[in-house]
């Protein structure tokens, strides 16, 4: 799972969680760059689990003193959430995960960037 977070006027975003489903045992180079995975946004998981992931992302964002937009990656085992890493310079191409989450939230990329840059 992955979740983008950004802050505008002191308020953290509530972007939908994205589920990455790899055809391989691991999310490796082939899965990531050669199309051996599919990205589902919003993730097809219970709302309560999605809300917990977003809350965890917000907590980490604040604790680390992040600014701008970041993306956090997780592994989910049952109901347990395991934080893997933070990407402080997430991709912003049309195919990248954060822009997909922005679009799924109902925002345009233009609106997102205008809000982010103030």
Q: Can you describe what's shown?
A:
The chain is of the alpha+beta class and 118 residues long. It has one domain (2-117): D-amino Acid Aminotransferase, Chain A, domain 1 (2-Layer Sandwich). It is built from four helices and seven strands; from the N terminus they run E-E-E-E-H-E-H-E-E-H-H. The protein has helices at residues 29-33, 47-64, 97-104, 109-117, and strands spanning 2-5, 7-8, 11-12, 19-22, 37-40, 70-77, 80-87. The strands form three sheets. It has a three-stranded antiparallel sheet with strand order 1-6-7. A two-stranded antiparallel ribbon has the order 2-3. The chain has a two-stranded antiparallel sheet with strand order 4-5. The mean pLDDT is 94. Its main location: cytoplasm. It is an enzyme of class 6 (ligase).
Q: What's the topology here?
A:
Elements (H helix, E strand, L loop, with lengths): L1 E4 L1 E2 L2 E2 L6 E4 L6 H5 L3 E4 L6 H18 L5 E8 L2 E8 L9 H8 L4 H9 L1
Q: Which structural class fits the helix and strand makeup?
A: alpha+beta
Examine the secondary-structure arrangement and name the CATH architecture: 2-Layer Sandwich
Low-confidence stretches: none
Mean pLDDT across all amino acids: 94
- What is the number of independent domains? 1
Report on the biggest sheet: 3 strands, antiparallel
Number of helices: 4
User: CATH H level: which superfamily?
Assistant: ATP-grasp fold, B domain
Radius of gyration from the CA trace?
A: 14 Å
Count of extended strands: 7
Provide the spatial order of strands within the biggest beta sheet: 1-6-7
What coarse outline follows from CA principal-axis ratios? globular
CATH topology: D-amino Acid Aminotransferase, Chain A, domain 1
State the end-to-end CA separation.
29 Å
The arrangement of helices and strands along the chain is: EEEEHEHEEHH
CATH C-level label: Alpha Beta
Q: Strand-residue fraction?
A: 25-35%
Helix content: 25-40%
């Amino acid at each position: 799972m992955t979740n983008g977070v950004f802050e505008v006027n002191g308020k953290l975003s509530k972007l939908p969680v994205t589920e990455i489903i790899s055809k391989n045992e691991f999310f490796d180079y082939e899965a990531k760059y050669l199309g051996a995975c599919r990205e589902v946004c919003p993730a097809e998981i219970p709302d309560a689990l999605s809300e917990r992931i977003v809350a965890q992302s917000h907590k980490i964002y604040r604790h680390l003193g992040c600014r701008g937009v970041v993306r956090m990656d997780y592994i989910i085992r049952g109901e347990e959430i395991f934080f893997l890493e933070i990407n402080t310079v997430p991709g912003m191409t049309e195919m990248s995960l954060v822009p997909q989450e922005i679009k799924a939230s109902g925002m345009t990329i233009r609106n997102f960037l205008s809000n982010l840059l103030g």
